[in-house]
Structures are given as C-alpha cells and as structure tokens.
Amino acid sequence: RAPVALVGGVSNTARFLYAIGGDGGAVTTARSDIEVVALTPFGVLKGGWRTLSQPLPAARTGAQGLTIGRFLYLVGGDTGGGFVDTVAGALAGSGNSMVSFCCCGG
Fold this sequence. Notes:
Blueprint: E1 4-9, E2 15-20, E3 34-39, E4 45-51, E5 64-68, E6 71-75, E7 86-91, E8 102-105
Antiparallel strand pairs: 1-2, 2-3, 3-4, 5-6, 6-7, 7-8
C-alpha cells in the first residue's frame, strides 16, 4: 500500500517501472524495498518484477516521487515513526539496477 510508482528511462528504448517503499497496510509497517520491472517502448510490462538488492536508506511510505531525466526522486513521506522532510535521489541504471538512493535535506 502507498508505494511511489515511477518510470525511469535509461535510454530511448530502455525504460523501467519502479515501485518504491510503501507499507503493509499501516504506516507503522513502512517498507524500504525497491521493486522494478522492464517496460517495452510502448509501456507494456516485459518480464517479471524483481526486488533490487539495494533498499532505500530508510523505510518510507506515502512519499511523492518524480523523475527528471534519468534521476528518480522521493520527497517526504513517513518512515513509520513520523513524517520526514527529506529528498532521496538515485540515478536509474540499466539491467534493472540503479545507483543507490541517498538522502538530503531535513
């Protein structure tokens, strides 16, 4: 429940759909995992979902997300212990990977 869904493009033909964070039905069960699936150029899922080995630096649910170029950003949200005012960013990678998210602000 409440993950951030973002489409990140590595090139004009390689795009991925990311499901980032979320929770198990209550804010206190905030998650830090990042799941990804490849997309065709027309936005159709290509293959199955995978959980990336590198999670978020901290669990986050109810955050907002945006992409700028190849960068993915998470803004705000709740860690399960309270609201946060930080931004986490990562560079979308190829092969269903990404550079680790890092936080700034707050």
